[in-house]
Amino acid sequence: MGVLYTRKEGIKIEICLESAQSVIEAEKGGADRIEFCSDLFEGGLTPTLGSFRIARKHTNIPMNVMIRPRGGDFCYSDIEFETMLEDVRIFKAEGANAIVFGILTPDGEIDVERSKKLIDEARPLSVTFHRAFDMTRDAFRSLHTLINLGVDRVLTSGLEPTVPEGADLLAELVQEAGDKIVIMPGCGISERNFLKMQKIIGAKEYHVFLPSEVPSAMQYHPQHIYMGGTLRQNEFTVSQTDAKRVGSIKAMV
């Protein structure tokens, strides 16, 4: 006999992904919304406008757009910040449902001044502060800074590499946040641990990455040439969201 799951009203599942095809698959699987990025190998960067337009053309699922001009840390130059502001304007005009960003000061605090500028540019859209939060010095101080800024939700693994490692702090953050801001756990959640994490943390929204490896259409595979650095992914498989995996998570909520 299969496991019988009790539906938990109000819990939302956001899927992290990086291609128009993955948006289509996430919608097929019943996701509530998606966080649209490029280059998840770098932790997620701003997607191309073309991929966003095609995803919007073929789906109706709400799309939150990552605004991150490069990989690495979250302390940006003036030119990088100018780029972020322009990307917010572009994706807002193109029909994004929300803007996702994170920006810190050199000493590991929320950059209040620049965050406010991004939020003002994004409104009336919803705004999510991403896992830059996990690189700050103090979770509760950072949480209240975001509340005071009017941020709608924060994506976090509880200042740990993954949600299972940060579960206890995440549960505390959920209690501290109340209805003032949404705590959305993300990183390391899968079908295997979702119910356990939900029971421990008690959040109302969860951020998950549920890919599968799809063979490339290439039949000729030269093995002595590659396009990336030494640490690289297989160039003859394509990672995309797995609709069945999304469906299995949705069946639990």
Short structural description:
By secondary structure, this protein is of the alpha/beta class. Helix content is 36%, strand content 17%.
Describe what this molecule looks like in 3D.
The protein has helices at 20-29, 49-58, 78-94, 112-122, 139-149, 163-177, 194-201, 243-250; strands at residues 12-17, 33-36, 63-66, 98-101, 126-129, 153-156, 182-185, 205-208, 211-215, 237-241. An eight-stranded parallel beta sheet has the order 7-6-5-4-3-2-1-8. Strands 9-10 form a two-stranded antiparallel sheet. Strand 1 (12-17), helix 1 and strand 2 (33-36) form a beta-alpha-beta unit. The longest helix has 17 residues, at 78-94. The protein has one domain (12-250): Alpha-Beta Barrel (TIM Barrel), CATH 3.20.20.380. By secondary structure, it is of the alpha/beta class. It starts with 11 loop residues before the first strand and ends with a helix. 36% of the residues lie in helices and 17% in strands. Helix 1 (20-29) runs parallel beside helix 2 (49-58), helix 1 runs parallel beside helix 8 (243-250) and helix 3 runs parallel beside helix 4.
Keywords, separated by commas or semicolons:
single chain, two-stranded antiparallel ribbon, TIM Barrel, 8 helices, globular, alpha/beta, 10 strands, 253 residues, eight-stranded parallel sheet
What layout of secondary structure does this protein have?
Layout: E1 12-17, H1 20-29, E2 33-36, H2 49-58, E3 63-66, H3 78-94, E4 98-101, H4 112-122, E5 126-129, H5 139-149, E6 153-156, H6 163-177, E7 182-185, H7 194-201, E8 205-208, E9 211-215, E10 237-241, H8 243-250
Parallel strand pairs: 1-2, 1-8, 2-3, 3-4, 4-5, 5-6, 6-7
Antiparallel strand pairs: 9-10
Helix pairs in contact: 1-2, 1-8, 3-4
